[in-house]
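note to self — DONT lose this again. spent like an hour looking for the file last time. sequence + predicted structure for the chain T wanted, 169 res
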Amino acid sequence: MGEKIEKKKLLDPANPTSPIIIFTLSLTSSLCTAATTAAPTAYDLLKTYNFPIGLLPEGIKNYTLNPTTGKFNIHLNRTCSFSLEDSYQIRYESSISGYIEENRLTGLGGIRVKVLFFWLDIGEVDRSGDDLEFFVGVVSANFPVGNFDVCPQCGCGMDCDFVRKIKNE
């Protein structure tokens, strides 16, 4: 009879050394760890491949990445457009795709720039030191990486404080 009592004690939830309690605590600990470990954001992904976060606008819903091929898809809340440096009109579709590797984005889809009267696809972005080179077909333009330290916002780009100031006047 003493043996039955001993078994009963081992399965007793009030017993802190009970296998049920140990298993439950272990499972709860694992679930909490998994829940608090945040997945990297698309902005984190850019930094991992040596790109500044400002290549993407604010408002990313989600993304997928195939780490083997570098193929990615990014989904924004909506289509997004804004002006940069008072001379470039940029447009991000709600879905952006391409391939990413260290210092290089290729096969880009969903990002366009207005040149004169025409909207052209930005097909590639390469980083070389402190410069980013944007390719539109066979034509390219270089910009300092520092220009992209902050994520642009839809509608006002990098000059949102200026736009807010005008609206409040």
